[in-house]
Amino acid sequence: MRQPLRWPWLDFDVDQVAAPAIAIGVDVTETRAEVREHWHRKGQLVFALGGAVTCRVPNELWMVPPHCGVWVPSRMEHSNIATANARIFFVYIEPGAADLPDRCCTLSISPLLREVIIELSECAPNDARCDFLGKVLLAELPLMPVQQLHLPISAEPRLRRIAEALADDPADRGTLAQWADRVALSESSLARLIVKETGLSFGRWRQQLHLIVALRELSSGASVQQVSGDLGYQSVTAFITMFKKALGKPPAKYLSDIARNGGSAFVA
């Protein structure tokens, strides 16, 4: 079934559907769309076939590039923001129906599973074909490789302030010392706080944010030149070098491999 991007759905409650797995397809219109924070009893796979989705859960920001999915466990609060013209599928799975992680993670989606999800979204939950497709999905999904592409966002007020400011203006090239001054900490204290709360250095943490923003914008059709400038890089070459060092391939190659191989372009 297909729906506009919103929550709750207009005509049914996913938690009241008895099927172990159901899928809903969403076509986002020309403008960016958001589903605000909510939760449901069923676990949810957020799968992007075109465009991109940013999924926020407590203390983390996850990116859903095309042909990949983010798994959100049962009862976890989350929100979704989709790029313009995105094509998204939400797969809802009964707790315990499949051996899936109890934490958020990015899953590579194989071409077979991609087609199963698409077909599952087109049939009624009580249809015999839907039951068969659901069983295939529940058998295949736990076999998908788990990959990490997310930004730790601490609940610590000063770090949340920095994260929100950088999300609003990713081109901000303020140094660690400048950010420390803005949040009334010494440079060394802020450096230790970031490592303690996120497990990353300030430079690596900001780079991870840049990767998430870059993939979101590139997936929605922005050029490498445009994204490079929006992120404050002095040259396109510098941006491509950062991207390749982090993800193993330059942007165009990375995204084309995801589209061709169903998510297996991930190396980090």
Descriptive account of the structure:
The protein is built from 9 helices and 12 strands. With 268 residues, the chain is α+β, with helices and mostly antiparallel strands. It has 2 domains: 2-147, Jelly Rolls, CATH 2.60.120.280; 155-261, Arc Repressor Mutant, subunit A (Orthogonal Bundle). It has a 7-stranded mixed sheet with strand order 1-2-9-4-7-10-11, covered by helices on one side. It is globular. The two termini are 34 Å apart. The model has no long low-confidence stretch (mean pLDDT 85).
What would a concise description of this structure say?
This protein has helices at residues 111-121, 128-140, 157-168, 176-182, 187-198, 202-219, 224-230, 236-247, 251-261, and strands at residues 2-3, 21-27, 33-38, 43-50, 53-57, 60-64, 68-72, 78-82, 87-93, 105-108, 146-147, 150-152. The protein is an alpha+beta fold and 268 residues long. A hairpin with a 2-residue loop joins strand 5 (53-57) and strand 6 (60-64).
CATH homologous superfamily name of the largest domain? Regulatory protein AraC
Number of strands: 12
The CATH class designation of the largest domain is Mainly Beta
Rg from alpha-carbon coordinates: 19 Å
Rounded mean pLDDT is 85
Examine the coordinates and then state which fold CATH places here, giving the name of the CATH topology of the largest domain: Jelly Rolls
H/E series: EEEEEEEEEEHHEEHHHHHHH
Total DSSP helices? 9
What count of structural domains? Answer: 2
Which strand order does the major sheet show?
1-2-9-4-7-10-11
Beginning-to-end CA distance, first to last residue? 34 Å
Structural class: alpha+beta
Q: How helical, in percent, are the residues?
A: 25-40%
Q: Could you give a short account of the major beta sheet?
A: 7 strands, mixed
Q: Please indicate the percent range of residues in DSSP E strands (runs of 2 or more).
A: 15-25%
**Which ranges are low-confidence, i.e. pLDDT below 50, for 5 or more consecutive residues?**
none
Q: Write down the overall geometry.
A: globular
The CATH architecture of the largest domain is: Sandwich
